[in-house]
Backbone:
């Protein structure tokens, strides 16, 4: 029986589901990355499922295991690439996966120039940050300059840096697909809460199952491959003129809402795919 | 003639040297990443030499160019891996490159456990940070607990996280080698200022040329390959019991001191290697 | 019946006790300073009892009420003075209330000079911060320099600034007295948890009732007056050579432990003193 | 001859002017608050002129001297009150000095409620911060909510807290008066740069001398008294409906522009007033 580490900080419903299904298929041990030190390159596991909520805790935990050539889901590279929207966009673009048109701006001055090229309204995002925080829609240069100046006071480079992006009218909905081991597991549609343009569940969006057409399936598989993701969720905008665009990839995906809407249990599929992988 | 972007924020002596030598070999343009927005995936350069001092500015600038499949030195992946000591150690360990024994600790509690396993004194480092800042030597648990608690107040994950590492008595000296396009360019030795255990030039260390033996050459070439570095500097400790250990890799290397001590001009070598690369 | 606002953010046992006793004596309304805006200088209360845990929230709430000449316990001035140890020490010293010998240092360099004058070990404190966080005992210049350098990375002036203070061996105990409306309510003794030199209850200290002698009573009444406190708790060290020294004043005092150890209910006494005050 | 300390961190033109005039009237010593520790309550000066740019450095330096009952200009209390706009407004309101209508809001939710009461546009300010940084004009709830959410990421309470204030159309100009030892020294008018609504000289405003009428003189003298300022500058808005309103008080005033526009040298006047004060 393979030895699997379930690496966590906060234990959510997802982690409890994972523990349940992993236990029946592998010798599973929960590792609390908050209180336990992780030696770089020394441990006795065959695989590690990486679930800390904190992005860096997840990436560093994964890296510690990879140092000992343990198979990780996801690997630290995927967690770092998906966790940073700037790096995600760059990898997707290099892989010819369409995304919203985006600029990197490191100062208010640069942001104003980028917005001028895009035309208003624009979206300002930080490379880092979940659940729609640090995402703003800006309608004119005065507002942009105020916001960009204020952002200069944020303490960390990855939240202070700006992605200046075209604003896409998606009617307040987006599609989230889960890719596992190179296959599409399924998709859901998230419809924004009324009066809210961001379709984050944390901001009141509701969800429903969604059937992917071949174009969408092809897109998300290529997106997952671009960040070397074994188990990732991918957020997609559907636009009239340009079809599907990938907006975000998540390297430690939440899947409670996906499970509820589709009946597909990502925890079970992950356990199966992982055992399969370890047999190779 | 190839088109090369020299991407900068602050222009140091290194950047002036690079501009000089690049200009005679390529159509070179300086791009100020502080004031100019960089479009993700659209530009007209063949290559970009990435030189911002800010690590994230460097990585995001590189990523913007890579999105358009421009050749970058170094690529964003190298800048991110080398810029983060935790990720560096994990990659080196996975590639069987020896490093100081290290643990990742995300809390005072975890740090205390790691130090207990290593034995005191230990070194506490942040994954991010240059010039010896955020590196402490700690002699006992009381001191460690104080320091770790204080670090909890730092605002960014990458500086708040801790690498707990064995303390190595290197007699206050280390070796820095520069690797360019898979070859060793040369090495220097840095000898710490008196009363200072860290051999950072910024902290008063002096430098001299150093002849690499085959073991050292092999080590640093493998280290550069482990982080996919085209032009990197690699800091090495020489220890009595365990020979050479890689302590750090720099993805946007300073080379003023190296040039002064060895007479080898990395700017010229970089320009040559880059032109060679673009001919392929 | 007077109108009293009980201003809170988090409601602890203390705030529930206060609400209980205030309700029977005044028309009392709870004001949540976290979710409600407070107009500067306009409201219909006769008095406000200020209880937010966040120091600035407490001070700004008090100031908003004072702008309308509402009687506040404590007033914003007391909250600001007591909340900042540097300002506390200065006021106490000006009022000839003995305190530990202290220096203000705004850089590692200044801290090293201060420690040299005091002799090691020294205590390093931030002006702001509760429950023993950001308080360190330092044994030598190397350790101090490390700690001071690390503190430079803290993001706020009031936590980055340093008070360099003589280390006093108090046998791990201190005395906490509560002063109400110019009278001593009572004192408790806190004895540090084993292996811990700081006598914070949050760090495992236990408490017992303590009888104040006239010297202690005089001291704490003068300390309360020095910061214009109506209802404050005062932490006192007892030393062999120099007798009682005031170490800290709290402008939004917790009193759960005091009540348990002494049987004296500060909530009842506060309600009585407040009603008395409003009659004047 | 009295002994005067000129306490500085960065030495600007103002500090050089002060040093010049103080030297001819007193035994003057420059004290660098950045590199020197300041003992709380022990020194040999008769007075201290407090000039550090950093607000807390200024306040703590003043407090250190006051602890030894040294006369300070300004005293720490004035520096803290004037340095924090929330505390300034509260003191002014309590002293019946008219100010823009203002609310304290500690969350996006509270800010939205405050703006609803005021009507849009509103001004959002942080209690701390100079030169127009962290001051935003907001036109609608969507913009306010975005800005307020973003501000939650700022690391320090005093910059994260919000003052929600009525927007006053002042035609882009304001008046700055300097009060010294209870008398009006003079006023200047600052006219905002084109396309900029904030009249900060740092943001391109130009200045001219301005004759105060008795109403303005009365207002600024009462404002200075409200914060116990010995030498303060006071920013005033002139409005059609409500006449003069005090917008800000500065406890470590810059006066280069004032001197240039009026020919009155505040450094000379300060030296004279200080010597006068010490004779009492």
Residues:
């Amino acid at each position: 029986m393979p030895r699997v580490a379930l690496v966590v900080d906060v234990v959510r419903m997802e982690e409890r589901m994972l523990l349940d299904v992993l236990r029946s298929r592998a010798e599973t041990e929960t590792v609390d990355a908050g209180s336990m030190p992780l030696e770089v390159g020394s441990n006795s596991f065959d695989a590690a499922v990486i679930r800390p909520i904190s992005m860096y805790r997840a990436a560093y935990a994964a890296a510690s295991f990879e140092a000992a050539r343990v198979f990780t889901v996801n690997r630290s590279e995927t967690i770092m690439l998906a966790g940073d929207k700037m790096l995600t966009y760059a990898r997707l673009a290099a892989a010819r996966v369409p995304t919203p048109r985006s600029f990197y701006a490191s100062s208010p001055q640069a942001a104003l120039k980028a917005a001028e090229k895009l035309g208003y309204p624009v979206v300002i995002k930080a490379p880092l940050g979940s659940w729609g925080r640090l995402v703003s829609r800006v309608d004119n240069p005065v507002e942009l300059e105020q916001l960009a100046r204020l952002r200069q006071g944020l303490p960390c480079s990855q939240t202070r840096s700006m992605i200046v992006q075209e604003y896409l009218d998606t009617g307040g909905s987006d599609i989230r697909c889960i890719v596992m081991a190179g296959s599409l597991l399924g998709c859901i549609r998230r419809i924004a809460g009324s009066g809210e343009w961001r379709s984050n569940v944390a901001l009141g969006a509701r969800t429903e199952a969604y059937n992917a057409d071949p174009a969408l399936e092809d897109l998300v598989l290529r997106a997952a491959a671009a960040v070397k993701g074994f188990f990732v969720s991918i957020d997609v905008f559907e636009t009239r003129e340009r079809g599907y665009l990938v907006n975000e990839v998540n390297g430690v995906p939440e899947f409670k809402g996906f499970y509820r809407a589709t009946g597909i249990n990502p925890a079970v599929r992950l356990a199966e795919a992982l055992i399969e992988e370890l047999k190779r």
Notes: The domain at 102-166 of chain D is CATH 3.30.1490.20 (Dna Ligase; domain 1). Chain D touches chain C through 54 residues (CB under 8 Å). The radius of gyration of chain D is 19 Å. Chain D has ten helices and 14 strands.
